[in-house]
Amino acid sequence: MKRNENWPVLYWTTCKITECLPGEVFEFAVIMRDRPVNTWRYEFRATQDGGTDVTESFDLGDNIFTKVWRPLGGFLRERRNRRDMFRTLERVKAVAERS
Protein backbone atom coordinates (compact mmCIF):
# COMPACT_ATOMS: atom_id res chain seq x y z
CA MET A 1 0.00 0.00 0.00
CA LYS A 2 1.48 3.36 -0.99
CA ARG A 3 1.30 5.97 1.75
CA ASN A 4 2.33 9.55 2.17
CA GLU A 5 1.34 10.27 -1.42
CA ASN A 6 1.40 14.06 -0.96
CA TRP A 7 5.00 14.27 0.15
CA PRO A 8 8.14 14.15 -1.96
CA VAL A 9 9.23 10.90 -0.28
CA LEU A 10 6.99 7.92 -0.95
CA TYR A 11 7.12 4.79 1.12
CA TRP A 12 5.33 1.47 1.08
CA THR A 13 3.73 -0.48 3.86
CA THR A 14 2.44 -4.00 4.19
CA CYS A 15 -1.05 -4.78 5.36
CA LYS A 16 -2.17 -7.88 7.24
CA ILE A 17 -5.79 -8.99 7.44
CA THR A 18 -6.61 -9.33 11.13
CA GLU A 19 -10.30 -10.21 10.95
CA CYS A 20 -12.60 -11.23 8.12
CA LEU A 21 -16.17 -12.42 8.57
CA PRO A 22 -17.97 -12.12 5.22
CA GLY A 23 -20.99 -9.87 5.49
CA GLU A 24 -19.98 -8.73 8.99
CA VAL A 25 -16.46 -7.33 9.32
CA PHE A 26 -13.24 -6.77 7.40
CA GLU A 27 -10.21 -5.49 9.34
CA PHE A 28 -6.56 -5.06 8.47
CA ALA A 29 -3.47 -3.68 10.16
CA VAL A 30 -0.85 -1.52 8.49
CA ILE A 31 2.54 -3.01 9.31
CA MET A 32 5.84 -1.15 9.50
CA ARG A 33 9.02 -2.78 10.79
CA ASP A 34 7.03 -5.90 11.70
CA ARG A 35 4.66 -3.97 13.99
CA PRO A 36 1.08 -2.80 13.45
CA VAL A 37 0.90 0.99 13.36
CA ASN A 38 -2.73 1.47 12.37
CA THR A 39 -5.77 -0.77 12.14
CA TRP A 40 -8.59 -0.15 9.68
CA ARG A 41 -11.98 -1.79 10.17
CA TYR A 42 -15.17 -2.07 8.11
CA GLU A 43 -18.33 -3.34 9.78
CA PHE A 44 -21.40 -4.32 7.76
CA ARG A 45 -24.95 -4.40 9.13
CA ALA A 46 -28.09 -5.27 7.22
CA THR A 47 -30.83 -2.66 7.30
CA GLN A 48 -34.56 -3.32 7.43
CA ASP A 49 -35.01 -1.96 3.91
CA GLY A 50 -32.64 -4.57 2.43
CA GLY A 51 -29.57 -2.34 2.31
CA THR A 52 -26.35 -2.42 4.27
CA ASP A 53 -24.88 0.11 6.66
CA VAL A 54 -21.08 0.24 6.47
CA THR A 55 -18.99 1.69 9.28
CA GLU A 56 -15.32 2.45 8.64
CA SER A 57 -12.95 3.12 11.53
CA PHE A 58 -9.26 3.31 12.30
CA ASP A 59 -7.26 2.82 15.46
CA LEU A 60 -3.74 4.07 16.03
CA GLY A 61 -3.49 2.27 19.33
CA ASP A 62 -2.65 3.64 22.72
CA ASN A 63 1.11 3.67 23.11
CA ILE A 64 3.92 6.12 23.82
CA PHE A 65 4.25 6.97 20.12
CA THR A 66 0.62 8.03 19.73
CA LYS A 67 0.64 9.91 23.04
CA VAL A 68 3.52 12.05 21.77
CA TRP A 69 2.48 12.12 18.11
CA ARG A 70 -1.17 13.24 18.48
CA PRO A 71 -0.56 16.65 20.08
CA LEU A 72 2.42 17.37 17.81
CA GLY A 73 0.46 17.02 14.59
CA GLY A 74 -1.06 13.59 14.58
CA PHE A 75 -4.48 15.15 14.99
CA LEU A 76 -4.04 16.54 11.45
CA ARG A 77 -3.53 13.04 10.07
CA GLU A 78 -6.55 11.81 12.02
CA ARG A 79 -8.62 14.63 10.52
CA ARG A 80 -7.44 13.63 7.05
CA ASN A 81 -8.27 9.99 7.76
CA ARG A 82 -11.83 10.97 8.71
CA ARG A 83 -12.18 13.04 5.53
CA ASP A 84 -10.85 10.19 3.40
CA MET A 85 -13.09 7.67 5.17
CA PHE A 86 -16.13 9.76 4.21
CA ARG A 87 -14.93 9.78 0.58
CA THR A 88 -14.34 6.02 0.60
CA LEU A 89 -17.80 5.32 1.98
CA GLU A 90 -19.39 7.64 -0.59
CA ARG A 91 -17.61 5.74 -3.39
CA VAL A 92 -18.68 2.37 -1.94
CA LYS A 93 -22.26 3.63 -1.73
CA ALA A 94 -22.21 4.85 -5.34
CA VAL A 95 -20.95 1.49 -6.62
CA ALA A 96 -23.42 -0.49 -4.50
CA GLU A 97 -26.37 1.61 -5.64
CA ARG A 98 -25.45 1.07 -9.30
CA SER A 99 -25.61 -2.72 -8.84
Describe the structure in your own words.
This protein has 99 residues and is of the alpha+beta class. The chain has 1 helix and 6 strands; from the N terminus they run E-E-E-E-E-E-H. It has one helix spanning 64-98, and strands at residues 2-3, 11-12, 14-21, 25-32, 35-46, 52-59. The chain has a 4-stranded antiparallel sheet with strand order 3-4-5-6, covered by helices on one side. It has a two-stranded antiparallel ribbon with strand order 1-2. The radius of gyration is 15 Å and the shape is globular.
List its salient traits:
1 helix, alpha+beta, 35% helix, 99 residues, four-stranded antiparallel beta sheet
Q: Can I get a quick summary?
A:
The protein has 99 residues and is of the alpha+beta class.
How is the secondary structure organized here?
Blueprint: E1 2-3, E2 11-12, E3 14-21, E4 25-32, E5 35-46, E6 52-59, H1 64-98
Antiparallel strand pairs: 1-2, 3-4, 4-5, 5-6
Number of H- or I-type helical stretches: 1
In one word, what is the shape?
globular
Strand arrangement in the largest pleated sheet: 3-4-5-6
Average per-residue pLDDT, rounded, comes to 84
What is the total number of structural domains? Answer: 1
